[in-house]
Amino acid sequence: xxxxxxxxxxxxxxxxxxxxxxxxxxxxxxxxxxxxxxxxxxxxxxxxxxxxxxxxxxxxxxxxxxxxxxxxxxxxxxxxxxxxxxxxxxxxxxxxxxxxxxxxxxxxxxxxxxxxxxxxxxxxxxxxxxxxxxxxxxxxxxxxxxxxxxxxxxxxxxxxxxxxxxxxxxxxxxxxxxxxxxxxxxxxxxxxxxxxxxxxxxxxxxxxxxxxxxxxxxxxxxxxxxxxxxxxxxxxxxxxxxxxxxxxxxxxxxxxxxxxxxxxxxxxxxxxxxxxxxxxx
Length: 281
Description:
Blueprint: E1 7-9, E2 15-17, H1 20-29, H2 34-47, H3 54-68, H4 70-76, H5 78-83, H6 90-102, E3 106-114, E4 119-127, E5 132-138, E6 146-147, H7 149-162, E7 166-169, E8 171-174, E9 177-182, E10 185-186, H8 188-197, E11 200-202, H9 212-219, H10 232-240, H11 248-251, H12 253-258, H13 263-276
Parallel strand pairs: 5-9, 6-10, 9-11
Antiparallel strand pairs: 1-2, 3-4, 4-5, 7-8
């Protein structure tokens, strides 16, 4: 690639200058070795053209990673693997609930709870001895979509209607925290409003720590859509049986058996799951 600036198209349709360092950082963060990272970045830097989409760049990088370091490719594809939990948001709700479970909470999904004025459908309810949380899980299967100010406003109104009520989740208590969680990002206006109004936001890279990406990596709760050894149809069939986490392919034998995976396919998927969703000692 020459010294001439190259502009690429992001998933939200905006342009930005291609920065080699960003590609390097994403590969290193996924666990790529220095040798493989350099090979991929040099390869893509030679071929990149003005107006190329970030999706095309990602796909090329993923293809090369899959060739050189397959387990790393699964981590590199994590954001898109979350998007592949769609098209409905229900698997994402279950996935969010599993993250709270890993943090020591008891969880329920898809609950109808009474507010002061009306009842509300809550995606995830999580509680422990000290805290009751209710979360709206806003799922987008297109990575360029963001949760905007309108979403933030109605979530704040919902939590305001709930905060004076008492609920019986574990024990009788009031709501301690309402959270808006998305698998993509938020608009600047949504962030500005929620920071002012006191609504906690969790997005893919927001806030700078304890964001969705961090929570997944810290808990090793990768979705089954990360597994490169399974086809899209096989992943969809497993999710329909409630198998949302990659580790569940080892733990939920009845559901896995019901989709009729070939023995070799299952063995390879289990081996892959152990690489980045290890057994807990």
